[in-house]
Design brief:
Blueprint (H helix, E strand, L loop, with lengths): L2 H10 L4 E4 L6 E4 L2 E4 L7 H11 L2 H10 L1 E8 L3 E10 L2 E10 L12 H7 L16 H15 L3 E6 L12 E6 L7 H8 L6 E3 L1
Helix pairs in contact: 4-5
Length: 202
């Protein structure tokens, strides 16, 4: 089974997540509900082939010791994915969350006007909280995009993994991924204070 073709199909169907595990066909979450596809069940060799495609050699070597790993994966022109590879019942499984290529607008998400105002705060600590899948990352991305369109600021993001890719409009972005660009959150945050930030997103 070809991973990229499966992911393109998931994107076309409007899936939010793709679940891949041994002895099960791929499962797509569509409109909040998981559905088994009509594809053949996956074997251990399929999962290993997917992992080999998703992970560079260095991370493949780390995986047996870590038991799970978070990465980002891109399908150019389609979308990005936040990927979690983990051990379950002695084999690896993969869950992939689809992330649109375009950063969403606050209005598209039907967020209240106060979110736009908070995005432009000059000072303070902003906490965005919620359950898994409730839209925390998407809300934060939309807030940074709003800031980017309206203000000239230096923005440093510290993420594991990087989800939305921000391009400079009025603001200037440095996006650091734990593992690739920084050792861990503590050291990245400490370093960020020496990198002339106006905004830090963790």
């Amino acid at each position: 089974m070809e991973l990229d073709e499966l992911l393109k199909e998931a994107f076309k169907l409007g899936a939010s997540d793709v679940h891949l595990r041994v002895k099960s066909p791929p499962i797509l979450r569509i409109n909040g509900k998981p559905f088994k596809t009509d594809l053949p069940q996956l074997e251990h060799s399929d999962i290993l082939n997917f992992i080999n495609k998703l992970l560079p050699l260095e991370k493949r070597r780390q995986l047996p010791y870590l038991k799970d790993i978070d990465i980002a994966y891109s399908l150019p022109g389609v979308c990005r994915f936040r990927v979690n590879i983990f051990k379950q019942r002695g084999t690896f499984a993969i869950v992939m969350r689809l992330i649109p290529v375009e950063v969403p607008e606050i209005d598209e998400l039907n967020l209240p006007q106060v979110v736009r105002e908070i995005a432009l705060y000059q000072r303070g600590l902003v906490l965005v909280t919620g359950t898994t899948g409730s839209g925390k990352s998407t809300t934060l991305a939309a807030m940074l995009h709003e800031l980017n369109k309206r203000e000239s600021r230096v923005v440093i993001t510290i993420e594991d993994p990087i989800e939305y890719l921000h391009r400079d409009i009025k603001s200037h972005f440095y996006q650091r991924e734990i593992g690739d660009d920084a050792e861990d959150f503590n050291s990245a945050l400490r370093a960020a204070l020496r990198e002339d930030p106006d905004v830090i997103l963790v």
